[in-house]
Amino acid sequence: MNLLITGAAGFIGTNFVYYWLKNHPADPIIALDALTYAGNRDNLRQAEASPNFEFVHGNILDQSLVETLLSTRNIDTIVHFAAESHVDRSIQGPDAFIETNIVGTHTLLKAVKNIWLNKYPQPRHRFHHISTDEVYGSLKPDDPPFSENTPYAPNSPYAASKAASDHLVRAYHKTFGLETTISNCSNNFGPFQFPEKLIPLMITNILAGKPIPVYGDGQQIRDWLYVDDHNQGVDLILKKGRSGQVYNIGGNNEQTNLDIIHMVCDLMNNAFTADPGLAAQYPDCPCTRSIHPSTLITHVTDRKGHDRRYAINATKIQTQLAFTPEHTFNQGLQKTLNWYLTKDPGPRI
């Protein structure tokens, strides 16, 4: 495949680049990223050593740029990660989410239609769109997990913008015959994640000795998926998934936010006990004074429209494409913590 990866300097995009270079080293990769607050080119420093990797600083809203890349680099596969993705930010300022997630996705679709279907017909092509389980809304405690047939019911501006982009991708397949697939994933975690999301925020706050904010009672439930398990699922979809289909990718790891916070606190405490050298690196961490980091837990007012529970039914991708997550939640959490302890854990702005 000749790949164009959008949002390649962001969290999941970065991990996907490294996953693909490791597992498909012969495939050329064009990494496109606008380098907004959550994108960091330095994330891709090691990737730039590969002769099959090229970084392009640009925006998915630039249709001319995308068309040029498609035609001059013989791109036949797009993996579209680029998105505004933080719910809190979408509540404070929805406009950026409409612009990037809806207009940006539509701009990409117009570009690939123009190049792959009109100017330079490309019989073998694929537009893979990365979406979220949040498009399905919120589950009650006893509700069955989201399946690919669950009606859309987004509750935040972020989720609504992703739902709209999903519908656009589906429409371009149905109306124009564009070869597309969509994956709706559960909460990802792992290396390179910008510290505004739950797990990296907890880790960086503990290391800095700052409060760990917990929305409401902390009993919100999410299904958690280690990022490279997600990337394995996308790989399978690109290789064996059927055009026009939607695949839910989940980790079968339902956890409450508060339980995860206590897990991270325990793992951090264990890490400092096992490696006394960490105290010198992180003098502000309570663990350096033999204080358990759970003392930093601070309950704050719940956010507006906070969905209570998400859960993914991944039966379709498991049975049709033989997807099986390789990491348990505890394994993924330990690997994530190890990465933040050995890399620069601060915000990348």
Structure report:
With 349 residues, this protein is an alpha/beta fold. It has a domain at 3-194 and 224-253 and 311-327: Rossmann fold, CATH 3.40.50. The chain is built from eleven helices and twelve strands. The chain has helices spanning 11-23, 63-72, 87-92, 95-119, 157-176, 198-208, 227-240, 257-274, 278-281, 315-321, 329-342, and strands at 3-6, 29-33, 53-57, 77-80, 126-132, 180-185, 187-189, 212-215, 221-226, 246-249, 254-256, 297-300. It has a seven-stranded parallel sheet, sandwiched between helices. Strand 1 (3-6), helix 1 and strand 2 (29-33) form a beta-alpha-beta unit. It is globular. It starts with a strand and ends in a 7-residue tail after the last helix. The relative contact order is 0.14. Mean pLDDT is 95; it is low at 345-349. Keywords: Lyase, NAD. InterPro entries: dTDP_Gluc_deHydtase (IPR005888), NAD(P)-bd_dom (IPR016040), NAD(P)-bd_dom_sf (IPR036291). Its cofactor is NAD(+). It holds the Pfam family GDP_Man_Dehyd. This is dTDP-glucose 4,6-dehydratase.
